[in-house]
């Protein structure tokens, strides 16, 4: 019986989606699913949900739950990670300390001071998981859903021997949004996307061999469409291609938007006008929430978390598949039914004008032979240049995390496009020092 291990299974909503994804495939139902989390209460809720899915559908699936990571990893074939080191307490520091200095992050989990420090907290735990995997399940595939995606995967590639892939839903999600904008069924289009996580580019977007970019570009002048994706349409206008990441998230990876109140207001317009259809849903938005938008979402939801999860556990559970790649990878590797995903992998020549060894997001063929990244070649020069501004931060953050060199972390944040647009180097050093001091309990690699 194959074994799939969930690390961070207390993330109940995401774990539920992955469970229904996996168990929607008949060939994957004869599986042991090991749920692991350090929070016994949340773990018990996920276990209850999983057991209900199995019992109601009369599946042969075996569900086990444990707070012992090594027990969960032993003999695993696939390991899916969804952890958040430091939880909301640390995340609030990622947002609020930089905000005090004038750095306005929308999400703060991928780049910038927030993304760098989230990576610094995650990497030591990931290295522990990897060491356990090298001993207990050396052939297992590690599926990473945890941000900062590129920083985490780069550290794993550099310091461990485990097979891993980073997974995100922005490529397929944004492609579906584009189809809505130009009124075409998603099933009718094909596209080529490549770049880095949260900053990949649709190099082709076609229907029956016909280029759809003229139709997409025409939507720049449609205010009802433009307001949904301000950042993406601005990049389309000035750099010629549509980016994969959400307009709010993308706004914090570049120096152009989040230093200007008018741009920030424009980017967050949908949260105020149509909150039920925007980032985080209808949870109540103020102008103040535009900095740390996702933190605000998490804090509001956390207030009623246990009640909401109890309701989820007792509600109807439909065996429907989401657009997440995880179950499709496992299905392809177990059954041989080929699929194509957009995975985050080590750049071994797939994108020729991005640094070798960095983490890139490219199309990958998946079958019984595993995950096979495809060759893309050169990105358009302007797109590679934008990607490299983020890769510079990632590389320095990884080096600092693996060596405990604080200077690398100062330099990583100094290279961040948004931070450098609003602070000088002395101010950045002072801000980073404050973040080190506040988060010392999660940063064992550094002398603080």
Automatic annotation (TrEMBL):
Substrate binds at residue 147. The keyword Hydrolase applies. It comes from the Bacteria. Binds 1 NAD(+) per subunit. The record marks 109 as: Increases basicity of active site Tyr. Belongs to the glycosyl hydrolase 4 family. PANTHER family: 6-PHOSPHO-BETA-GLUCOSIDASE-RELATED, ALPHA-GALACTOSIDASE. Mn(2+) binds at residues 168, 198. Signal peptide: none annotated. GO terms for biological process: carbohydrate metabolic process. Keywords: Carbohydrate metabolism, Cobalt, Glycosidase, Hydrolase, Iron, Manganese, Metal-binding, NAD, Nickel. This is Alpha-galactosidase. GO terms for molecular function: hydrolase activity, hydrolyzing O-glycosyl compounds; metal ion binding; oxidoreductase activity, acting on the CH-OH group of donors, NAD or NADP as acceptor. CDD domains: GH4_alpha_glucosidase_galactosidase. Residues 194-419 form the Glycosyl hydrolase family 4 C-terminal domain. Its cofactor is NAD(+); Mn(2+). Homotetramer.
């Amino acid at each position: 019986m194959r074994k799939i291990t969930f690390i961070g299974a207390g993330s109940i909503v995401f774990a539920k989606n992955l469970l229904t994804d996996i168990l929607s495939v008949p060939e994957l139902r004869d599986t042991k699913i090991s749920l692991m989390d350090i929070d016994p209460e949340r773990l018990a809720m996920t276990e209850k949900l999983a057991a209900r899915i199995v019992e109601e559908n009369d599946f042969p699936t075996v569900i086990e739950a444990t707070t012992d990571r090594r027990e969960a990893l032993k003999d695993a074939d696939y390991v899916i990670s969804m952890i958040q080191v430091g939880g909301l307490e640390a995340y609030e520091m990622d947002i609020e300390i930089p905000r005090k200095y004038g750095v306005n992050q929308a999400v703060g989990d991928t780049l910038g001071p927030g993304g760098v420090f989230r990576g610094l907290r995650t990497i030591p735990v990931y290295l522990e998981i990897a060491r356990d995997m090298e001993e207990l399940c050396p052939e297992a595939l590690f599926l990473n859903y945890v941000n900062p995606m590129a920083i985490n995967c780069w550290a794993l590639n550099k310091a461990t021997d485990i097979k891993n892939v980073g997974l995100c839903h922005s490529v397929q999600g944004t492609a579906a949004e584009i189809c809505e904008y130009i009124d075409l069924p998603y099933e009718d289009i094909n596209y080529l996307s490549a770049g880095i996580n949260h900053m990949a580019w649709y190099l082709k977007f076609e229907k029956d061999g016909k280029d759809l970019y003229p139709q997409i570009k025409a939507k720049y002048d449609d205010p009802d469409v433009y307001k949904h994706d301000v950042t993406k349409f601005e990049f389309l206008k000035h750099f010629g291609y549509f980016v994969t990441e959400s307009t709010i998230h993308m706004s914090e990876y570049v120096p152009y938007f989040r230093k200007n109140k008018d741009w920030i207001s424009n980017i967050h317009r949908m949260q105020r006008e149509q909150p039920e259809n925007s980032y985080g849903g209808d949870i109540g938005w103020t102008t103040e929430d535009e900095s740390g938008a996702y933190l605000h979402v998490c804090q509001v939801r956390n207030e009623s978390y246990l009640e909401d999860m109890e309701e989820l556990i007792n509600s109807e559970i439909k065996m429907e598949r989401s657009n997440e790649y995880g179950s499709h990878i496992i299905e392809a590797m177990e059954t041989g039914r080929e699929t194509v995903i957009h995975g985050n992998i080590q750049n071994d020549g797939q994108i020729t004008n991005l640094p070798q060894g960095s983490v890139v997001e490219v199309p990958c063929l998946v079958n019984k032979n595993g995950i096979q990244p495809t060759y893309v070649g050169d990105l358009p020069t302007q797109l590679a240049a934008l990607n490299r501004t983020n890769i510079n931060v990632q590389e320095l953050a990884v080096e600092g995390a693996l060596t405990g060199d604080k200077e690398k972390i100062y330099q990583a944040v100094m290279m961040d496009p948004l931070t450098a647009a609003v602070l000088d180097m002395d101010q950045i050093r002072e801000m980073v020092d404050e973040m080190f001091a506040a988060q010392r309990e999660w940063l064992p690699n550094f002398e603080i």
